[in-house]
Design goal:
alpha/beta, D-Maltodextrin-Binding Protein, domain 2, 2 domains, three-stranded parallel sheet, globular
Amino acid sequence: MPHGKRSIQAALVALMGVACAVTTPAAAADDFFKGKTVSLFAGRPPGGGVDSEMRIVGQHLGAHIPGNPRVLPQNMPGAGGIALGNHLYNVAAHDGLTLGVPGRTAFLLAPVVGNANARYNLLKFTWIGSASSSNFILWLRKGAGIDSLDELRKTTRTLIIGGSGSGNADTVVPELLVKYEKFPFKVIRGYPGTSEQILAMERGEIDGMFTERASFRADPVASGLAVAIFQTFPIEPNLPLSEDVVSDPKGKAVLRLFDVPLRVGLAVVAPPGLNRDTTKTLRDAYLATITSKEYRDEAAKRGFDAVKPNPGDELAAFLDKSLSSVRPDVIAEFRTYTE
């Protein structure tokens, strides 16, 4: 073959290689996800805030992933999200086709405090992101006749508070307030999820619950169901903060530990070991989803605050900083509420 033709062919091959290198990431993602199904799990039962957020994300996520895969919403409840955490870490394929919204407190704090049921390392998960932090609020049933924190401190009647179980903020924070602030609460554990707690409040079976506004299908204040007493973060106007409710130093430290999962919010998590391109594809698609008009309109209808998203890489860095050096005495105190 003449030298000139060989040179032209070599140049063409080189150009094709450059073109492939430029287009490979997007094209590879499109090729991989096209025609596939992404399973998106919630770590709590249907009807509550975790399930609701999972379904809003699932409704729109596929449109932002190259190849537009089908996104299949599913539930895997158990131990406040620990069961789903175990599945994502130990069972699910590390290929980007299985994602989860495990939940907050139990899922995030169980391995930190030595819960043997949590068979995963938080820092090895692939963190995709969360739409916002979770502003948990103490809600009291309107019929309880208490409209403020000051009135709550003064009342002498026992108030029934619904809780899910050990390790969850909706249960432990009210129990902590009983111990350190002598709040007149009787906390009833065992509700499978927030939807069951809300139903119990509507029936008058419980007087209150600790959850975010988005857990309610109808706004609890506008509907006349409940009043807000205090909040975790300074989002609602003219509402006290939970950190100001507790004065005991150890009680405050435990409460700050609970602030970590609420700051993380309802994060979308993938198994560990995803390759860099798949991780970027999913993080970009998730961010595009939660900043889209369609998602935000739906989130607003449910009272879900999606003003400041938490990117996946920032969540990973925050957890590494916040949970790597929790004091032993705080862990010991936390465990008294979970045993």
